[in-house]
Amino acid sequence: MKNRLKVSAGAIVPAGADTASPARERPVQRLLLAGCADFWRLWSVGLVVFTVRWVETVAVGVFVYQHSRSAFLVAMMTMLRLLPMGLFGAFIGAWAEKVERRVVLIVVVVLMLATSASLALLDYSGHLAIWHLAAASFLNGLGWATDNPVRRVMIGEVVGGGQMSTAMSLDVGANNASRMVGPTVGGLLLASVGIGGAFMLSVALYSFALYAAFRVRYRNTALIGSAPVLARIAEGLRLVRGERRLIGTLAVTIIYNVFGWPFTSMVPVIGQSRLGLGAEGIGILASMDGVGAFFGALLLTVLLRPAWYGRAYLGGVAIYLAMLIVFALAPWAGIAGGALLLTGFGGAGFSTMQATLVYLAAPPEMRSRILGVLSMCIGAGPIGFVALGLLADAIGAPWATALSGSAGLLCLALTRPLWRHI
Fold first, then answer.
1. Which residues fall within 8 angstroms of residue 103, CB to CB, at 6 or more apart?
2. Sign (positive/negative) of CA torsion 113, 85, 399, 296?
3. Which residue range is the domain that position 405 belongs to?
4. Which pTM value belongs to this model?
5. What is the pLDDT of residues 17-63, one digit of tens each?
6. Per the domain annotation, does 7 fall within a domain?
7. Three-class SS state of 386
8. pLDDT tens by residue, 289-307
9. CA distance 351 to 169
10. In a 10 Å sphere around its CB, with 0-12 CB exposed, 13-18 middle and 19+ buried, how is residue 118 labelled?
11. Structural domain total, the chain
12. Which of 38, 75, 142, 213 could covalently link to 265 via disulfide, CB atoms 3.0 to 4.6 Å apart?
């Protein structure tokens, strides 16, 4: 197949990439992707979407827990953001090959802007209810499900396979920077002006993202008259089944999203019920994960080499699962914050390498499809959110979270025959 990985000087690199210069001699401008204006426009859209996601996740989580006292309902808010990935991820990946991705990106940003504006108006009119937040979470999840097969495929095509790791490190760095700022801002806005203020900030940020999306010059060639969506999905799944690196990468993705990622929905619950923090304190606590992830992504951008891609991916997941157990059982906010710093550091390795490994292992003409399959695997997360929410209501959020992390580590060990090929 085209663009398969090849071995060069002991390192796995994409076929066709420039291997003439050693990695240590890469110029600074290449690390920063200087001159690639479309990359930075796409990066800006991602930064806004990531920031809003974290602002609203903390604000909505605290709001729902204050009004319901149910850890299960808090988990459901985040679960609904992930549900569209599981339901529609593969379909969106196949469909994205038949459309102009820039148009899809603009439509998605408009949808998210309208959703946040509607929630702000409902709050200011005194009619905002938990079910409104649930419906909005699902709609925003539809937009989130397009990120891998649309925006990140555009990034790969704009910068080229040889710079995909650097581009993903910078993109994940934006996500992690938003995790430093977003939760704190969400908590402060909720405490000072109410949840409507958080949604108004979202509207302002989405307006900037819409401007950036309109300025993207890149256009892809839509596959008009190609095979039907279901046939292309089946072809993509056949490729995954025959490629051991993809099987291993996707298996680890499922473990992370079922046993690891759902713990983020418990941060407001544990912060309030176990650590006795208010909205501002919960926002700062949740930001610690982003601080660790941000500096982890910066380190990866500068130091990571192709030979270490698999180790960064697997090691990141292991650190993440171990540290969420420490966070869950921490008796003091300081220890909990330190554990979240390390979950962020581990999560940076996982997040940076996840899309990179899948992108490089897939032939160019099938990348949207395979990244759609990746979104579908990420969409397995709702299983973990439902299970964690129910368990948290039954035995308490701290013990439920610790049990989830322990189960994740066990599954990671048991699936070594799958991921050892990465």
1. none
2. negative
3. 36-216+229-419
4. 0.68
5. 333 333 333 444 454 555 588 889 999 999 998 889 888 888 888 88
6. no
7. helix
8. 888 888 887 787 777 777 8
9. 9
10. middle
11. 1
12. 75
